[in-house]
Design brief:
The complex is a heterodimer. Chain A is mainly beta. In chain A, 12% of the residues lie in helices and 35% in strands. In chain A, strand 3 and strand 4 form a beta hairpin. Chain A is globular. Chain B starts with 5 loop residues before the first strand and ends in an 8-residue tail after the last helix. The chains are: A mainly beta, B alpha+beta.
C-alpha cells in the first residue's frame, strides 16, 4: 500500500481595491488554489459593494479569468487586484436603453 | 453596520416566496458616511464608523419594511424602501431569465426584517442576541479579511456663497461646449466619458461644491456603441481614472457622462419637441455599480424638449438619500450666462 504524497498548499496575502481606489479589502492567507472568481466574490462581500452584477478583476491592466486559480493567474503575495463592475457579460454596458425611454 | 435582525429582499409570485437574498444597504451606508463627513460629525480619515440599523414597518406590520434608519454619532437618517429598487430589478431580471418567474403581473418584491420586534413608534427595537446581519454579503469567509477606505478627496475652501449644509454642482461651459460638439459630430451613436473636477468642502458651513471642469472620453470596444448602448472595456475605466489623477491639478473623477442620441429625422426638424435626456433604469444600475460613492454624479446629453436636436442639452443625476435622482446644476465659465439661459429648465431638479 502506498500513501499518497502529501501536497503542500501555498498561501498569499493580497489586496483588492475598487476602481475608485477608495475601498480596499486585504485578504490574508488565501490559498493559491482559490479561483480568481472566489477571491473576487469574497472581496465584494467584504467591501459591501453593490451586490447586483459581476466584477472583473484586473492585475496590472490585465483582465484575469475568473475560473483560473490564483496560481494560474500568476498572482504573488502582496499583489493589488482592481475590481471593476461588469454590467453585462464581458463588458460594462453603459446604456440609455431605448426600451425604457419615456 | 450592526443590526440584530436579518434583512432580506424577497420575491413572491402569487404570494409564494420564490427568492430571498440578503438586502444590500450599501447605498444607505455611502450616503450616511458622506453626510457625516460633510457635516463634521465624522472625521474624513477613511475610518468606517459603527452604524446602527433599524427597520421601519408600514401599515401591514412586520416583517415587510417601508424604510430604514441608520444612526451614527448622534445623527439618524431615514431611507425609503426605494433604495432597494436597483437590487430588486437585478434579482427579478435573473429570475425571469432563469424561468423561475413567469408573469410580471403576479410578481411582488419586498424587503423584510426577520427577527426584529416592532416598537410602538414604528421603528423596531433591537432584539436580543448577536447581530444577525450586516449590510449584505453572506458568503462564507475563506480567509481573514480586513477592510479599509480612503478619505474623500475634498479640497478645503471657503464657500461663502453657498447656504450652510448645501451641496452644489457646477459644470464649466467649455466642457459642455466640447460635449455638445461631440454629440452633434458623432450623431446617432452614444458616447461616454469620465467626468473630472474638484470637490470643494467648507467644513464651517458643511457645504460642498462639486466643480466639474473636464472629462476623459471612454473608448467603446469594437461594436460597443450604438444609438442605444455604449460598451467599454473595464480596463479603460481604470486607465481614464489614472489619466485624471496624473494631471496633478487637484482634479479627481467626479462622475460619468453619456449621450442619448435622437432619432434620424430630428436634426432636420427644429420644431420637434421630443426629449431623449433621461436616466433609464439601465443607467441607474450602471451608476449604482460604477459610481457608488455618494458624491459621484452623471451628466446625460441629448435632445431636450425646448431645444432643436442640433443644440443638444444636458441634465444631471446623482445620489440623494441612497437613491439616484435628478440634480440641479449651475454653469460656470466666461459664457455661462448664455448657456444658462439656453439650457434653462434643464438646470433644475424639476421642470
Amino acid at each position: 500500500m502506498t500513501a499518497a504524497a502529501p501536497t503542500s498548499e501555498s498561501f498569499v496575502d493580497l489586496s483588492l481595491v475598487d476602481w475608485e481606489d477608495v475601498r480596499r479589502a486585504h485578504l490574508e492567507r488565501v490559498s493559491l488554489r482559490t479561483t480568481v472568481g472566489q477571491t473576487v466574490s469574497e472581496a465584494v462581500d467584504a467591501l459591501q459593494l453593490p451586490a447586483q452584477g459581476f466584477y472583473q478583476a484586473l492585475l496590472r491592466g490585465r483582465t484575469l479569468d475568473p475560473s483560473d486559480s490564483l496560481e494560474e493567474a500568476g498572482i504573488a503575495s502582496n499583489e493589488v487586484i482592481q475590481l471593476v463592475p461588469r454590467v453585462s457579460a464581458g463588458n460594462v454596458r453603459v446604456a440609455g436603453a431605448a426600451a425604457d425611454r419615456p | 453596520v450592526t443590526a440584530r435582525f436579518s434583512l432580506r429582499l424577497e420575491v413572491f409570485e402569487d404570494g409564494e416566496l420564490v427568492e430571498s437574498v440578503p438586502a444590500n444597504i450599501a447605498a444607505c451606508v455611502e450616503h450616511a458616511l458622506f453626510d457625516g463627513v460633510r457635516h463634521g460629525r465624522l472625521d474624513n480619515d477613511g475610518a468606517l464608523p459603527e452604524f446602527d440599523l433599524q427597520p421601519h414597518f408600514g401599515a401591514s406590520g412586520p416583517p415587510a419594511v417601508c424604510g430604514l434608519e441608520l444612526a451614527s454619532e448622534g445623527a439618524t437618517t431615514r431611507y425609503d424602501r426605494e433604495v432597494f429598487e436597483p437590487q430588486a430589478r437585478t434579482v427579478l431580471k435573473g429570475l425571469f431569465e432563469s424561468k423561475r418567474l413567469s408573469d410580471a403581473r403576479r410578481v411582488q418584491w419586498q424587503v423584510s426584517a426577520h427577527g426584529a420586534a416592532p416598537a410602538a413608534h414604528g421603528a423596531a427595537q433591537a432584539a436580543q442576541g448577536p447581530p444577525a446581519c450586516s449590510s449584505g454579503g453572506g458568503a462564507r469567509r475563506r480567509s481573514a479579511a480586513s477592510v479599509s477606505r480612503a478619505p474623500y478627496p475634498f479640497i478645503r475652501e471657503s464657500l461663502a456663497g453657498l447656504a450652510p449644509g448645501s451641496l452644489e454642482v457646477t459644470v464649466d461651459e467649455r466642457l459642455l461646449g466640447r460635449l455638445r460638439d461631440a454629440v452633434v459630430r458623432v450623431g446617432r451613436v452614444e458616447q461616454a466619458g469620465l467626468l473630472a473636477g474638484r470637490i470643494l468642502h467648507d467644513p464651517d458651513r458643511s457645504a460642498i461644491r462639486i466643480a466639474i471642469s473636464d472629462e476623459v472620453p471612454l473608448i467603446p470596444v469594437t461594436g460597443g456603441a450604438s444609438e442605444s448602448h455604449f460598451t467599454f472595456d473595464p480596463a479603460d475605466m481604470v486607465a481614464a481614472r489614472r489619466r485624471v489623477l496624473e494631471r496633478g491639478d487637484g482634479q479627481v473623477p467626479v462622475g460619468w457622462h453619456h449621450s442619448h442620441p435622437t432619432c434620424a429625422e430630428c436634426p432636420a426638424r427644429p420644431e420637434c419637441t421630443g426629449d431623449t435626456v433621461f436616466f433609464s433604469s439601465a443607467d441607474v444600475d450602471v451608476h449604482a455599480r460604477l459610481m457608488p460613492s455618494a458624491q459621484l454624479v452623471a451628466l446625460v446629453a441629448g435632445k431636450v424638449r425646448h431645444l432643436p436636436a442640433t443644440r443638444p442639452g444636458f441634465r444631471l443625476y446623482g445620489w440623494q438619500q441612497g437613491r439616484v435622482a435628478r440634480r440641479a446644476f449651475r454653469i460656470t465659465g466666461p459664457d455661462s450666462a448664455a448657456w444658462s439661459s439656453e439650457l434653462g429648465p434643464c438646470l433644475h431638479e424639476e421642470e
